[in-house]
Amino acid sequence: MDVDRTACPGQPPAPPGAGVLAPSRALRFWLNPANLAAHLDRAGPVVRTRTGPATAFQINDRALLRKVGSDEETFRFWGPDPSLRDFNESGVVGLEGVSHQERRAVMRPAFAASRLTALGPSVQARTRQLLADLPPDRPLDIRVEMSRLACGLLVSCVLNSELTPDTLSRIAAARSTLSNGTFWRYALSPWPWVPAPRRRACRRALAELDEAVRQVQARHRPDPDGQDLVSLLEAAAPGNPHVVQRDIRALLIAGMETSASTLAWACYELGRHPHYQQALQDEADAAPDASRLQAHQLPLAAAFVQEVTRLHGIPFLVRRTRHQTCLGGVRIPAGAVVTLPLGAMRRDRNRYPDPDVFDPQRWLPHTGPPPAPAALLAYGLGPRYCPGAAAADAMLPVVLATLASSRTLRPARPGRKIGVSLELTPTPKGLTMYATPCEPRLADTRPAPGTNITHRSGAASTESGHA
Questions:
Q1: Where is 54: in which H helix or E strand?
Q2: 3-state secondary structure of 396
């Protein structure tokens, strides 16, 4: 039986709404699984491709992909590249080998499961505060506003600090410049005589970032047990504030980047599928305590985030060979760029039915065995796996549920083509939306306490009792 996955129960099918996505030609290549199949059939698991003026080696085999992502002795992570020294200043993102592992070990207690469990209510409260500052009567640049939201949550709920509203707004505006500048610095590093674009704007953005780091340290609120992230970093480098500053700087860039992109794409999909806004609100209202949400209480919100990641996550990862090596029968020279096409693999028809359709339902168990979230590689893999991945998983569903319960999103210019920014983590470019405060709901329209939510066909309906 065919199931309409785009409509709420009892309503006619809802076609995708405004906002036609128009990725660049290069990005379409990274997202098209047909390219993988064609290359695999013709040339095998490792294929020479062109990345701008450079020759790159694309990995089409999943087993080899994991090998490349995990083998630091042969393949260098992009972060330590000398071309990015101005951005990472040898912070945790730019360290390698033992130094990198030691720095990650310092941070590990801050992401313990017992601490992450307590994140939900604070994330919900801070999200409401940040959303309250959104003007309801004019179009919003979603890329900037979701950067502001992501940065505010990172600083408040993970770094236990605060930024002034002006600094937060400036960092949100600077994020895209920093991300774009980092991308071009790395992409053009084999040709140092080619000027990277917007160098002056990048220097100004870095100055804003350094001011944010100073404020984070000055306004830091240490936990009594000393196990919060900034306290751990300071305790591991006594008398060396520069080490702490560069790590906070790296964490601000890395932590804000992926979350801002995920939230911006979530807004894009909510605008295209507005019935999900009501479904997410119903799910939040059905939680045992709607004022203290936790990610595990929000399966639809978590599924929504996973589907956003599948369709709009990082399209490829990059490594560079330390020395000549042979992979999949192909000789790869030292210093060569090796690409891992995650975007195309996330649209593999053998793994995801209707891979080009936005369908959060595929991640819910009632629709059949859901795909394994690990297959998304949302936070990288191997030794460079994001240390804050568990924190992001605990925060993003709560943020999304709070956003859907607080504001109604609708495109400001229906039908406008939405581009994809050329940054470390692509974000929707040109997406403007209204964020109107939701009307207060009558108490008797909320699901009764203890009511289960059963998700069908892209929305939520309520059933009393247990299945």
A1: strand 54-59
A2: helix
